[in-house]
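User: Second chain of the day. Same drill as before.
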Amino acid sequence: VSTQSTGGPLLVTMATFRSAITGNYTDTATVKIPAKTSVLAVSGDWVLRNPKNPYHEGIQLPMGQSHTFSRESEVILFVQIPNKFCYKDTEGHGRMFSGLQNTDAQGRRCLNGLCRNPDGDSRGPYCLVKDEESGNQIKSSCGIPKCIWDVECYADNGVGYRGNANTVSISREESVPCQSWTADKPHVNPFHPTEYNSKMFGIGKHNSCRNPDPKTAAVPWCYTTNFRVRWGPCVTVKQCDATVDYFQRDL
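Assistant: Same format as last time:
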């Protein structure tokens, strides 16, 4: 699925000495940036990562901002798709969606700003539009697609994963359910569902795999319900790659 069909992400590189565009990127890529080159996030939020230490060294590049490289550098241009160009249905049908679309699925201008879903409407992000027949304001779906990335697979280091996988392998032959994030038995759990943990890591009243400790882990994981094994990676959750579409649309 092309993100360009939904007004998707765009990052451009420009030679600073002649202000000429030298590259257009609409997807995550590892590239060599020449010296004296500026990188501009035209659409979407991006992260410029160091390939040698991608999860701990990076430059946040929100939409509209730029960064100039004084010397040649190899970087990972990482685009943030989930909750920007698609919504995670497992997060209250898109409660955390923060994209910039301001029209409904029929192209009508939103009267209340941007497409959002504060009340967890099952149709996903919506906005208020004027009904042509009655003249009243009505809710109308924005037609935002559902994310596949970070729901059916995990991207980056798994911090954004919001899928429902909830088992962990403790040996080659045995898998056990994850311990609930609200519980402290059989293992003491420092990651209870606080407001911060819920927003940043998806911790809640469930036992689904998450990664609230990216300094230690680089994949979704959980505490186990086996008292002999404290925690483990959720190996059933595969990493998102180029073979997986970013999102899907309801037919």
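Helices lie at 195-201.

User: Great, on to the next one.
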